[in-house]
Amino acid sequence: AAKPDPLLVVDGVSRSFGGLTAVHVEHLEIQRGTITSLIGPNGAGKSTLFNVLSGFDKADSGTWTFDGRPATGRAAHRMARRGLVRTFQLTKTLSKMTVLDNMKLAATGQRGEQVLPALLPPLWRRQEKEITGRADELLERFRLAHMRDEYAGTLSGGQRKLLEMARALMVRPTMIMLDEPMAGVNPALTQSLLGHITDLRDEGMTVCFVEHDMDVVMGISDWVVCLAEGRIVAEGPPSSVAKNPAVIDAYLGK
Ligand code: ADP
Ligand code: MG
Who lines ligand 1 at CB under 6 A? Predict the structure, then answer.
């Protein structure tokens, strides 16, 4: 393997809900340019860890750095600007916007949308054109171009998954966190989503994704981290993690 080059370094991060420790991670490193899968049974803390590291939730303790700089407790929009984004399922509100507007919103966020066009019309128009160009490029790549001006709510389940991924790429992230991108998707589309994920890695992006189906992740992961009851119980290359007794226990225990 290549020399370690961690993009995300996590130390002693914990998050509790009431009396329940959802996450307690002593140490975790995500290597730049890899596909790292986070596996584990339901309730293991995978989504909570994603939320904390991407700035959508607060840790109770611990520290982490992203791209060599402190990132502990930074808000999601700041992390996005620094190149770390996570995907979210399409909400009701977003369903009532067109596919293109979904893409544009992902680039600008909610902040400054009214302010910028009012204060700096020429700059805004140039930026708007750039953003639309980027959106169209990505819609093409994810085969959604024909749905550009339709309401996002009219997309099929699989197309929604593609849009979620495309949205996240609007900010040209260094690292993308995908929470169960394949959930509820048919096998053909699963293959296509896995292809997109591999392509992103091959282009140099760091991908971290949550998936509870071990078979799905084994083929494409460079590294696999298994969480159970909030703790890392095993990590390593997919072949070694697949036969690790702690991992087998974690799955059979549920
Ligand atoms: P996973 O994504 O691995 O299925 P989660 O991170 O969603 O697991 O949940 C980990 C644990 O934390 C679960 O026991 C879950 O019920 C609990 N949990 C997650 N979010 C909340 C919350 N907002 N309030 C209370 N408990 C939560
Ligand atoms: Mg989850």
Answer: 17, 20, 22, 40, 42-48
